[in-house]
Amino acid sequence: MRLDVPAAPYYSAGAFFRNTDIPVQVIHVENSQLYPEHHHDFDEIVIICGGKGCHTIGTRNYDVRRGDVFFIAGGTTHSYTDLEKLDYINIIFRHDAFQEDSIRHVLAKLPESGIRLNLLDESIILSIVNRIDRELLEKKFMYALMAQSCLVQLICVLVRSGSESSMESGSGTASRIKAIMNYLENENGPDIPIRLLSEEAGTCTRNFHRVFLRFAGVTPTEFINRQRIRRACELLTETDKTITSISALVNYSDSNYFSRQFRKITGFTPTEYRNSSKQNYK
Predict the structure, then answer these.
(1) Which of 3.40.50.300, 1.10.10.10, 3.20.20.70, 2.60.120.280 would CATH assign to domain 10-167?
(2) Partners of 90 in the beta sheet?
(3) 232-235 contacts: CB < 8 A, separation 24 or more?
(4) Residue ranges per structural domain of the chain
(5) pLDDT tens per residue across all 282 residues of the chain
(6) 169 Cβ contact list (under 8 Å, min separation 6)
(7) Into which CATH architecture does domain 172-275 fall?
(8) What is the DSSP string of 112-137?
(9) Ranges of H-type helices in the chain
(10) From residue 259, how far is each of 122, 223, 226, 240 by CA, in Å?
(11) Distance CA 52, CA 55 (A)
């Protein structure tokens, strides 16, 4: 669900869980406002979907952007500042609704700063979130149990992703590849040969592909294409530029090839996506 949640120093579970049989809710926050220091008596998983900002826990500051996920235990004081079009999803839940405290124990394994999802895990996580949303909306037989089961599945994917990343992060090549991934994200998929990226990572092209695939869940070429299409989606929504102009701005010299890639990744043509976005904002 999409809610306009006003800034407040404290949020009570009673305001969000009016039906005590439903232990989980999903809240989509778009173009977020500043949230000063606050706390709540429920637990929260936050998935950053777009934009960037600063997440503060106590006296520690963490920069966050798309792909970052973190866990906030009930009672923890935190805040959001320095926001630039920050979009995120809050999965809030009452840990006391579970038969044992194992859920919070497992989530405690995540670092306070959160983890960065690769594209594959991000896709899996968002599909689970959509399933929870759908169960809560449609309210079919045993929907509460289904939503709770999906929450457990989501937590397992998060903790597994976090543990795999921490085990592999010690490698020098891995660190350089992560830096390259950050660069490709920030530059919206620049037009750079994979060979040069491999050299920058200090490894051969074959090994670069192998390690990159393990971290990102997709090949370097597909990763670059997805960053370009992500930026194209923003331009289609926020500007009136032509499809050909947007194609060039996201480093596609052939607008027809751009349209094919756009449909392959989003399921829509650029025109269909723009029209759909305008309908959603009416």
Answers:
(1) 2.60.120.280
(2) 27, 46
(3) 232/258, 232/262, 232/270, 233/266, 233/273
(4) 10-167, 172-275
(5) 555 677 788 988 888 888 878 889 999 988 777 788 999 999 999 999 888 899 999 889 998 988 899 999 899 999 999 888 899 999 999 877 776 567 777 787 788 888 888 776 788 898 899 999 999 999 999 999 899 899 988 988 888 777 665 545 545 677 788 778 888 887 778 888 898 888 888 888 888 888 888 878 889 999 999 999 989 998 999 899 999 999 999 999 899 999 999 999 999 999 999 988 766 544
(6) 175, 178
(7) Orthogonal Bundle (1.10)
(8) TT-EE--HHHHHHHHHHHHHHHHHHH
(9) 13-16, 102-107, 119-138, 143-168, 172-186, 194-201, 205-216, 220-238, 243-249, 255-266, 270-280
(10) 24, 17, 13, 17
(11) 10
